[in-house]
Amino acid sequence: MSTRGIFALLASEQMDSLNDLRDVLKNQSMGTWCTQSCEELARLLEQTRPDLIFTDARLCDGTWIDVVSLAERAAVPLNVIVVGACKNTKQYVEAMEQGAFDFILRPFEAEPMAHVVKVAVNNVRHRRQDLAVHAVA
Questions:
Q1: Cα separation, 125 vs 112, whole angstroms
Q2: How far from each other are the two terminal CA atoms of the chain, in whole angstroms?
Q3: How many independent structural domains does the chain possess?
Q4: 50, 56, 68, 51: which is closest to 20 by C-alpha?
Q5: How far, rounded to the nearest angstrom, does the alpha carbon of residue 3 sit from its chain's CA centroid?
Q6: pLDDT of the chain along its 137 residues, tens only?
Q7: b/e map of 80-94 (b: 16 or more CB within 10 Å)?
Q8: Is residue 1 in some structural domain?
Q9: What's the CA gap between 2 and 133, in Å, rounded?
Q10: Domain hosting residue 121, numbered range
Q11: In 3D, which of 70, 106, 77, 105 has the Cα closest to residue 91?
């Protein structure tokens, strides 16, 4: 699967914390845009209709839980991938139970990230196709 044409929003209170992730995604020909707040993220969701959101645990006006909630209310299906600071089984389970698609840790290596993106985007595309089929039916 080519990642060309895939667009992701990166949400973090401190944008430089996701620079390495942005670089890996751009090397895979993905479009990205960065945001520091849930408020800005909400506006960008409507304007850009991303396939994915990668979010740190905290933003200046919320947390990853708020990001998942915004994604669930978005006009089109998308997946949220939470970026954790350290290996934390409790946080991983909580993220999955709260509706995140995945929970990843640094370092962001090309091959594992390509797999995460492929699975997440395939899921989004299937959900969007199902939505379109039901809208026409």
A1: 20
A2: 29
A3: 1
A4: 56
A5: 14
A6: 566 689 999 999 988 889 999 999 999 999 999 999 999 999 999 899 999 999 999 999 999 999 999 999 999 999 999 998 888 888 889 999 999 999 999 889 999 999 999 999 999 999 999 988 887 76
A7: bbbbbeeeeeebbee
A8: no
A9: 24
A10: 7-136
A11: 105
